[in-house]
Amino acid sequence: MKLNGEEEEEKVVVGYALTSKKKKSFLKPNFIALARNKGIFFVAIDLNKPMLEQGPFDVVLHKLPGKEWREIIEDYRHKHPEVTILDPPDAIQHLLNRQSMLQNVAELNLSDCHGKVGVPQQLVITKNASASTIPYEVTKAGMKLPLVAKPLVVDGSAKSHELCIAYDELSLLKLEPPLVLQEFVNHGGLLFKIYIVGETIKVVRRFSLPNVGKHELLDVDGLFRFPRVSCAAASADEADLDPNIAEHPPKPLLERLARDLRRRLGLHLFNIDMIREHGTKDVFYVIDINYFPGYGKMPEYEQIFIDFLLSLVKNKV
Ligand SMILES: Nc1ncnc2c1ncn2[C@@H]1O[C@H](COP(=O)(O)OP(=O)(O)OP(=O)(O)O)[C@@H](O)[C@H]1O
Ligand SMILES: O=P(O)(O)O[C@H]1[C@H](O)[C@H](O)[C@H](OP(=O)(O)O)[C@@H](OP(=O)(O)O)[C@@H]1O
Ligand SMILES: [Mg+2]
Ligand SMILES: [Mg+2]
Prior knowledge:
With 317 residues, the chain is α/β, with parallel strands linked by helices. The protein has 2 domains: 12-87 and 303-315, Rossmann fold (3-Layer(aba) Sandwich); 98-291, D-amino Acid Aminotransferase, Chain A, domain 1 (2-Layer Sandwich). The protein is built from 13 helices and 14 strands. Strands 5-14-13-10-11 form a 5-stranded mixed sheet. A hairpin with a 6-residue loop joins strand 13 and strand 14 (283-291). The chain is globular and about 65 Å long. Bound molecules: adenosine-5'-triphosphate, the ligand O=P(O)(O)O[C@H]1[C@H](O)[C@H](O)[C@H](OP(=O)(O)O)[C@@H](OP(=O)(O)O)[C@@H]1O and magnesium ion (MG) (2 copies). One magnesium ion (MG) binds next to loops. 1D-myo-inositol 1,3,4-trisphosphate binds at residues 22, 63, 161, 193, 290, 294. Kinase that can phosphorylate various inositol polyphosphate such as Ins(3,4,5,6)P4 or Ins(1,3,4)P3. Its EC number is 2.7.1.134. Monomer.
């Protein structure tokens, strides 16, 4: 966007609509200052005023829950096709349901990429299903315990991140549909978070749930509830870990996975939670994909975002 005045300096205006939590973790003062030095200005979108009366923006960055916001941003997108919307609401919508979230991964064919990427076997238990039918459905699907039970819808609420592990059949009766049941995959207690920002990929390691052995399966019964593991889990990047567990997934595999998912999902900003099946070198599972995740926890996110925003505007000219 050209500034009025004698020197026609290039300026990038980024309108944003974020929750206060996201604003605090992402729009940190030093990021805002660094961006400003590069001609990038962040402007809050006023939710109490019509969006069409605001701007002009080069880019709109958003993550707000609810249908109302989705309609506002969709309408704006159609009336302002020249503005880059990060990201289109219909594409984001795909990630807000744990069933559709992993569909694209299941359909990928990453042969010749130094490894295999799949999704754990999973089963959807719909809202109207009675919990009493779950053991039967699980057996019918040929799924093995333990199972991770996840709320079907991811709406940004703490509740949508309240997961539990069901160790035995009886505990399945205590579950509250709608949910997705996923086979628990032993992965040595370590998770790879693959952050994507446009074409940039950054991988960090986090501690995760420990392996479940035959012993635990005999001794532990019931439901084990665990709220928000990924946010609470400490970074495992500096830890002294077994290299068989902690070695990063092969770069060509990550590059193909990120590229293919970016295209299939139609998104620029997301992260992928990936685990390596314990005892293997190259068998991986994607267990979660998040839209516009906690980039504040990604090393060097400030520079990565600045380069990304500038590249978006440059590629439009
Ligand atoms: N199928 C699985 N096998 C083993 N562990 C799993 C599985 N699914 C989830 N986990 C563990 O549970 C954690 C939370 O699961 P998941 O990432 O699906 O939840 P989430 O609430 O969407 O997390 P986030 O905060 O990343 O959005 C994972 O980080 C991992 O430690
Ligand atoms: O550890 P990460 O960066 O994955 O944490 C993310 C999390 O994965 C989800 O994307 C959260 O979004 P919601 O699903 O909407 O709750 C992020 O929360 P946010 O409030 O920062 O968007 C976490 O940071
Ligand atoms: Mg996760
Ligand atoms: Mg998630």
